[in-house]
Amino acid sequence: MKIAKGGAPLLLLLAAACARTGPVQTAAAVPAPSCGKGADSLDSPPGKIWWDANRWRYADDEAATKAYALLVGGASPWPDWYSAYDSTLPAGTRFQMAIGGTQTPEMPGSFGTFDRISSVEDVRERLAVRDDWKPQVDRVVTYEVVTPVPVRIGPIGPQIDPKSCRYLAGRWSQFQAMVPRGTLFSHLKVVDIRPIR
User: Fold this and answer.
1) What's the per-residue H, E or C state across 82-96?
2) Mean per-residue pLDDT for 159-164?
3) Measured between alpha carbons, how far is 6 from 10 in angstroms, rounded to an integer?
4) Using the 8-state DSSP alphabet, how is residue 187 labeled?
5) Side-chain half-sphere CA neighbours of 61 within 13 A
6) Beta strands in the chain (DSSP E)
């Protein structure tokens, strides 16, 4: 291999970067300093990342552009290629939910996951929880179902977070509890609460 003059320091930097330990930062995981035209534009950082990841799924640019506009405007919890199905979580089923701030374990939201939540980045990137939906995330609660819970189940659809100017890929498992708001906890018991960062 021939190294260009002055290329040795660059090789050292590349080697140091490759040797780095810890989580790998993706383009989607690094908040952009500015959204430019706004997250609703395909020219924005999240728009460009979405286009690179998803344009191939559509017959032409016009169809892909419409799909992005629907994603930004509709914020469906499910991917556009999937129809969530109705089911029931039986007693004994365990799941996790991220909470934060003044939210207590006795005040669960409507969405849970069967994947292990290890970090706030998991909540943002893999659960696609936008900052404006849940500004603070600092704990994970493991719940167990004690009386059956009717749910809608499927994979997590991607989201565009206008506040942080990020494309949140989603893709983990999720369910939406189909019970009246504020009543989910009557079907559950808390198994564990742990902090995340």
Assistant:
1) CCCEEEEECCCCEEE
2) 92
3) 8
4) G
5) 1
6) 85-89, 94-99, 111-112, 139-145, 149-155, 159-161, 166-168, 173-177, 188-195
**Which SS3 state, helix, strand or coil, does residue 72 take?**
helix
Kindly report the number of other CB atoms within 10 A of residue 120's CB atom: 17
Residues above pLDDT 70, as percent of the chain: 82
State the chain's mean pLDDT as an integer. 86
Query: Does 65 have pLDDT greater than 80?
Result: yes
Which of 22, 80, 25, 87 has its CA nearest to residue 54? 80
Token pair, residue 112, equals: 């849970």
Contacts of 88 (CB under 8 A, 6+ apart): 148, 149, 150, 151
Residue 121 CB coordination number (10 Å): 17
* Cα–Cα dist 25/173, whole Å: 22
Q: Is 110 exposed, middle or buried (0-12, 13-18, 19+ CB in 10 A)?
A: middle
- In which residue are the tokens 């930004």 written? 72
- What is the CA angle 90-91-95, rounded to 5? 80
Please name the residues in contact with 146: beta carbons below 8 A apart, sequence gap of 6 or more: 91, 187, 188, 189
Q: Are 121 and 29 in contact (CB under 8 A)?
A: yes
pTM of the model: 0.79
pLDDT tens figures, 77-98: 999 999 999 999 999 999 999 9
